[in-house]
Amino acid sequence: MLKTHSTPDPASAGRPAVDAALFREGMSRVAAAVHVVTTDGTAGRAGFTATAVTPVTDDPASLLVCVNASGRTAKALIANGVFCVNTLGIGDVPVADAFAGRANLQGQDRFALGTWGVLETGAPLLLSSLVAFDCRLDDARLVASHYVIVGRIVGVRLGEEQPALAHQGRLYHRI
Amino acid sequence: MLKTHSTPDPASAGRPAVDAALFREGMSRVAAAVHVVTTDGTAGRAGFTATAVTPVTDDPASLLVCVNASGRTAKALIANGVFCVNTLGIGDVPVADAFAGRANLQGQDRFALGTWGVLETGAPLLLSSLVAFDCRLDDARLVASHYVIVGRIVGVRLGEEQPALAHQGRLYHRI
User: How many whole angstroms separate alpha carbon A87 and alpha carbon A159?
Assistant: First the structure.
């Protein structure tokens, strides 16, 4: 039996999207830099490994990060209102693994790997990073399971030149 | 040699962020996949080369693209309400250059390079792409000079396996 539903707009939010497995397979082909995004403040220190980071505009210098809304880091980042995006070089695979939860290190213990400092916001800066962007939270918008977080960049630190770390095809690569 | 730059007084939202040249230098170190984002519909066919693309969530499968709000493509994409993100393989550097405005081809003429099809939305699909994500516009939010465009993915096409094209340090790379 056919049912007719009034669908005035084909772009309606009710339309099914592609399934998660196909989405992930497709996205695994998209190369990306590897970052560790950190925060510190009254809600505590936290961090996670991210590839979903992009610049937004250069005036004012801004970037965005997508982060799972259910995690502790998202909550801490939003409560603290500051974060640092540390873009990793090839030498920091162990740090990437730790902050992705692949090294059996929880919470604060992850910061035992790497050498850390701060710029102006107090969010942890990985001293070996290829570049770090110190940010103040401008906006956090929930899109289903994830926040799209826009940060105003208040400090940039160019680290020592080195090959960049990228991720593609479910593998790390040196660029 | 390490360089550290930051603005002196973070607390005031009215203060300038880091300058555009430093932002661009920092972002040039961030590796990214290279995509051609296309649209078609009542507002016409258009496309541009983008690196500011990230997945957002897998349920519903969604991605986002940052696009300069002043360009013709942004206006067409929003008016058409559909777009296709074509993630390029190593063979499509000429297409990347053309849609970045580096090949002396304007507007429609850019589509003379490459072989194109469509999935469900009608936005041009580059048949040689490593993967393509066919999207319906979910949201377009203006952040200063750029739109952050969230798309609901309604189709994914996995192209032939091939090395991915990445951009880092102001150069193309093969991954």
Answer: 10
Residue B94 neighbours by CB under 8 Å, 6+ apart: B103, B113
Report pTM. Answer: 0.91
Separation in Å, CA of B172 to nearest CA in chain A: 10
How close A136 gets to chain B, by Cα (Å)?
Answer: 8
Residues 13-42, chain A, touching B (beta carbon < 8 A): 13, 15-20, 22-27, 29-33
Please give the CATH superfamily to which domain A21-174 belongs: Electron Transport, Fmn-binding Protein; Chain A (2.30.110.10)
CB contacts, 8 Å: A51 with chain B:
54
CA-closest candidate to residue B121, choices B103, B101, B135: B135
Instruction: Give the pLDDT confidence of A96-148 residue by residue, as tens digits.
Output: 999 999 988 988 899 999 999 999 999 999 999 999 999 999 999 999 999 99
Which amino acid, residue A107?
G
CATH 2.30.110.10, domain B22-174, yes or no: yes
- The token pair at A162 is 């080195």
Interface contact A156, partner B, CB < 8 A: yes
Cis upstream peptide for B60 (omega within 30°): yes
B50/B83 Cα distance (integer angstroms): 13
Backbone angles phi, psi at A172, to 5 degrees: -80, 150
Torsion of CA B68, A134, B175, A171, to 10 degrees: -130
B169 touches chain A (CB under 8 A): yes
Reported as a single tens digit per residue, the pLDDT across B108-153 is 899 999 999 999 999 999 999 999 999 999 999 999 999 999 999 9
Three-class DSSP category at B90: helix
| Interface check A49 vs B, CB under 8 A | no
Per-residue DSSP letters for B102-135? -SS--GGGGGGSS-EEE-SS--EEETT-SEEEEE
What residue spans define the domains of chain A?
21-174
